[in-house]
Amino acid sequence: MMKEMYAAEAQSYDIGSVERIPIGEGRRFRLGAEEIAVFHLRNGEVHAVQAICPHREGPLEDGLTGSGRVVCPLHARAFDLASGEPVGHTCDALRTYPAEVTSAGTIRIYVVQVAESI
Amino acid sequence: MTQKHRLVVIGNGMAGGRLLEEIVARGGREQFELIAFGDEPYGNYNRILLSNVLAKSQDPDEIYLNPLSWYTENGVTLHAGTRVIGMDRRFKRLFHEKGELRYDTLVFATGSSAFVPPILGVRGDDGELKKGVYAFRTLDDCHGIMDSARSARKAVVIGGGLLGLEAARGLQELGVEEVHVVHLMSHLMEAQLDAAGAEMLQGTFEQMGFHVHLEKSTKEILGNGKVTGLRFADGTMLDCDMLVISAGIRPNAEIAARAGLTVNRGIIVGDDLRSPDDKSVYAIGECIEHRGETFGLVAPVWEQARTLAERLTGRNPEAEYRGSLIATKLKVMGIDLSVMGEHTPQPGDEVVRYVEESERIYKKILVRNGKLAGAILLGDTSRGAHLLQLFDRGQELPQRRSELLFPAPHEIGAPTVESLPDDHQVCNCNGVSKAQIVTAVKGGCRSLKSLCDATRAGQGCGSCKAQVEALFEYAADGGAVEDPSIHYYVPGIPLTKPELIDAVRTLGLRSVSSVFKALANGKEDPSSKMGLASLLKTLWGGEYEDERDARFINDRVHGNVQKDGTFSVVPGISGGVTTVHQLRRIADVAEKYEVPMIKITGGQRIDLLGIRKNQLPDVWKDLGMRSGYAYAKSVRTVKTCVGSEFCRFGLGDSTRLGIEMEERFKGLESPGKLKLGVAGCPRNCSEALIKDVGIVAVEGERWEIYVGGAGGAHVRKADLLAVVATHEEVLLLAGRFIQYYREQAKYLERTYSFVPRVGIEKIRAIIVDDSEGIAAELDRALQASVDAYADPWLEAVEPVHPSQFAAAIDA
Questions:
Q1: pLDDT tens for residues B81-130?
Q2: Is the pLDDT of residue B2 over 80?
Q3: CA-to-CA separations, B297 to B48, B192, B294, B329, in angstroms, rounded
Q4: Residue A62 contacts B, CB cutoff 8 Å
Q5: Which residues of chain A have pLDDT under 70?
C-alpha cells in the first residue's frame, strides 16, 4: 500500500531488521543526505522523524518514547511521532518520513524529495 | 447511529459551568448530548470576583469564565436566560419557560440565592426589594449597587460575614462617605473567626473608617418608597441612603423539592453526589447538602464538579466526594486575612497563638494529632501559602511550632511575591517573569501543574518552585484548584508512592511496561518511565526486570549527554584520591581520542568532555577504571579534604573514611542524586555541611553525621543526625539513612526537601533509635543493593544490544 503511494516520488531505504533497534528505543540513520531518527515502539510500530530537535538541536533518537511520543533528552520537548507535531510547546513540527515493517521483518523508510523552493 | 445519552445540567454558574468544562475535558462530547440551562442571559462568570468588581479592582468583562461561544465550540446547547420550572421524574422530562425536553441524566447546579430576612418594610408593595435596598449576589445586583452608590452619602450593610465586609469595602471604594456594618452576632465573621481574632479585625476595620454595630437585630426598614433608615430591636435607629443585605445564602432547591427529592437545607446527596431518591438525578454546588454541610466557597464546588465528571464519563465510576477542607481569604484591600479549617479547639487540640496589638497582628493555629486542623492569620499572612500546603496535604507539622507562624531566618527580608515588579524573572532557567505567570493564571491555569506546564516556570532546576507556587496562589486569589497528580509518584500513574508500592508488590510487577499495562491501561507515559524504573529497582533489587527503553539516555550508555549530543566520561576516583597510574591513563586516553575538554569537577574528579557515543566502549576499556556515576540519579561522589594524614588541623582520617564510603555506596540508585562529603575537622573544607550526607570529624575522635544539605540551585545547611565514634558506625547509619531515603522519598525529591518534609527528629528516631523497628530491614535491603553492584562500564565488553552505542548508522 505504502509502496504504491510513494514509489513514484520517494526514494525507499531498507535499513535492515527491526531487531536492529531495541524495543522502545530509537537509533539514528543516515539516508542519503538526511539524518533520520527511527523508533521501534513497544506496540510494534516503527516511526521515522528528523533526528535533530528543532528546539536546540538535541539528538531525538536518544529520547524516551511512549504513547506515540518522543521526548528530547536535552530539554524534554515532546513530539508526536506519527504527525511530528509538538506536544505542549510551540517548537516547529518534526519532519516525518513514512516507515513500515516489511513482510521480511525489515524496516523500510521512504524519503520524499522536498523541492528546495516553491 | 445510536442516540447519545442526554445529560442536562440546570444551572450555569460556578458549579454547572465547571461541570461542563470537566466533562468536555474528559472527552464527554463523544458520550453525551450536553444541554445546560442558565437563569442569567450571560455565559458563566466567576462569582467570587464580584467583590473585586464592586471594589473596582476588576472590570465586569474580566470575570467571565466562558463566553457564549465556548458552548457552541464545545458542542454544549446552552439555554441562557431560560428558567426551568419543573420536572417529571417518572417520564424523565424537564419543563422550562419555553417548552419541555427529555433527559437521561439530570444534574442540579442551581446554586443559591441571597437570603433576605423577612424584615418589616424590606420589600415594596410589588414584592420586590424596596428602592435603595440590594442583595449582593449577582452581576445585576452589583450593577444596581454601583449605580446607587453614586448618589449615596451613607450606606448600611446588614451582615458582617465575609461577603458583607467585602461589600462594605466596595461601597467605600465607590465613594460612599459613611459605611456602617450591622451584624446580628457578637462578633464579625463568626463562621471563620474566633472572638479574639474578630475583635482585632473589627479594630482594623474601624480604623479604616467603617462603623461596626454588633448584636443588632433589624426590625424594620424605614422609608416610604425608598429606604431612609433602619430600626433595631433595642429601639435604636440608623438612617441611611442605601442598604445592602448580605445575610447569607439559601440553596435553590425548590424544583427538586417539588419533584419529590429529599431536601433539607439543600438537596440531599450522598458521596456519589446523587439523590438517594432517583438514580438519574445528581446535584452539585451551593444547592446541595452533603453530610449535613452546605457550601458557599468555590473550592469544594469545583471539587464536586471534578468528582462528578469522573463518575459520569466513566473515567472513575467509583469517584466519591467526601467533603472538602475549607480555606479562604478576605478580599478587602488594606486587610490581610487568611483562614483555613476550624477556629475553635476540640478537647485535646493544641492551640498556638501570637498576638501583637500595636501592629494588629493575630495568628492562631490549631494542631490535632500532629496535623494542622485550622489557622487564622490576620495582619500578616506571609505564612499563609506554607500553612495552606500543610493543611491541604495533611502533612506532619514541624516540632517547633514557631516555624509555622514566622518565616525562617533565611526567608526574612526576602521580598513577598506581591511586591515584586511585573518584569521580575521568577524562573531563571526558562526565563519566566512574574507578569507571564500572573497572565497565565488569569488566563485559565487553575492548578499549579497546568501553570508550570503552560509557562515552563519551575521546570528547569526547580529552585524557584516555592516562589512560583506563592505567585500562583496570589494570582489565583482563592480560585486555585489542586491537581491530584501532584500527589502521584509519577504523572502517568494515578497513585501516590505508598499506593504504587503496594500495587507493585501485590501484583508482582517487575518491569516498567508491566506497570503501565496493569495500572495505566497500557498507556506509556514517557515522562514516568525513569521514576518507575528507579522505584522498581529499589523494590526488587536483583529480581527487577530491566527494560533499557525505560532508562534515560544517560543510563543507557552510562555517560552524561551534552548539548551537542556527545557524552562526558568521569571515571570513579574514590574520595578524590588518585594515583600516578590513574592520571597517566586518563592523560593517554585524552590524547588518543583528542578529547576536546578535560575538566576538574566540583566532586574532585576528572571529566573528559565531548566523547561520541560510539567511542564510549573503547574509552572505558583504555581507561581501565570504573564508572564514576556522574550522570545517574544515584550516589555520585564522596568529596573529602586532606584530613589527619597531612593537614595540621586534621582531627579525623577523612580521606580514608571517604574512600570507604564511596566504595560501599557507589552507584546506588536513589530518587535523586546523592552527593556525599567528609571533612577532617569543623573547618569543613570539603563542604560536608551542604552535602546530602556529610561527615565532619570533631575533637574527641568523633564523627558528626549530617543529612539533607544542599549547595546547588538550592542551598541548605544539613541537619545533624548523630555523633558516633567509628568508621563502621558512620557507614552503618549513613547507609541506613540512604536506604530510608531510597524507599520513602518521591522521585526527584532531593534530601534537602525530603529531610525537612519528614522532620529530622523523626528521621533520627527511625535511623538512630530504631523507633519503628525497621532498622534491620533497612540494613539488609541496603546490603542487598551493595552486593548487587556491577560496574556499568563492563558493558564495553558485553553490550546489552549490538547497537547500544551506535552513532548515526549509514543505511
A1: 899 999 999 999 999 999 999 999 999 999 998 899 999 999 988 889 99
A2: no
A3: 8, 12, 10, 10
A4: yes
A5: 1-9, 113-118
Q: What does the pLDDT average to over B793-802? A: 94
How high is the ipTM of this complex?
Answer: 0.92
DSSP B168: H
CA distance B522 to B528: 13
Q: Search chain B and give the residue with CA nearest A20.
A: B803
Name which of A30, A57, A27 is nearest B553 in CA terms: A27
Do residue B808 and residue A28 have CB atoms under 8 angstroms apart? yes
Whether B521 and chain A come into contact, CB under 8 Å, resolves to no
pLDDT for B479 equals 67
pLDDT at B469: 85
Per the CB < 8 A criterion, the answer to whether B630 and B605 are in contact is yes
Pick from B634, B574, B602: which is nearest to B712 by CA?
A: B602
CA nearest B374: which of B405, B404, B344? B344
Do B556 and A13 lie within an 8 Å CB cutoff? no
**B553 CB within 8 Å of a chain A CB:** yes
Cβ contact B128:B122 at 8 Å: no
Contact between residue A54 and residue A91 where contact means Cβ atoms under 8 Å apart: yes
Helix (H, G, I), strand (E, B) or coil at B250: strand
Q: For residues B661 and B733, give the distance between their C-alpha atoms in angstroms, rounded to a whole number.
A: 11
Letter for the amino acid at B810?
D
Q: Per residue in B720-754, pLDDT tens?
A: 999 999 999 999 999 999 999 999 998 889 999 99
A71-108 burial code (b ≥16 CB/10 A, e <16): bbbbbbbbbbbeebebeeeebeebbbbbbbeeeeeebb
- Residue of chain B whose alpha carbon sits nearest to that of A24: B549
Q: Do A14 and B806 touch (CB under 8 A)?
A: no
Label residue A84 left, alpha or beta by phi (over 0 means left) and psi (-120 to 50 means alpha).
Answer: left
Q: What is Dmax (Cα atoms) for chain A?
A: 39
pTM above 0.90, yes or no: no
Distance CA B138, CA B159 (A): 17
Taking an 8 Å cut-off on Cβ atoms, the answer to whether B549 and A67 are in contact is no
- Which residues between 1 and 60 in chain A have a beta carbon less than 8 angstroms from any beta carbon of chain B? 13-16, 20-25, 27-31, 35, 42, 51, 56-59
Residue B71: which H helix or E strand, with range?
A: helix B68-73
Give the best residue of A42, A43, A50, A89 to mutate against chain B (max B CB count within 10 A): A42
Measured CA to CA, the distance from residue B805 to residue A28 in angstroms comes to 11
Q: For chain B, give the mean pLDDT.
A: 91
- CA–CA separation, A100 and B714 (whole Å): 48
B553, B556, B564, best to mutate vs chain A, most A CBs in 10 Å:
B553
Q: Quickly count: other Cβ atoms within 10 Å of residue B572's Cβ.
A: 20
- Interface probe for A, chosen from B524, B611, B800 (most Cβ of A below 10 Å), is B524
pLDDT in tens, B295-314: 888 778 888 998 999 999 98
* B43 pLDDT tier (thresholds 50, 70, 90): low
Closest CA to B92 of B109, B78, B106: B106
Of the ranges B424-433, B529-538, B632-641, B766-775, which one carries the lowest mean pLDDT score? B424-433
Interchain pair A64, B810: CB under 8 A: no
Q: Which helix (H) or strand (E) holds B727?
A: helix B727-744
Which of B456, B526, B528 lies at the smallest CB-CB distance from A69?
B526
Residue B63 above 90 pLDDT? no
Residues of B in contact with A28 (CB under 8 A): 806-809
- Could you give the angle at which helices B434-442 and B465-476 cross, rounded to 10 degrees? 40
Which residue bears the cell 528507579? B534
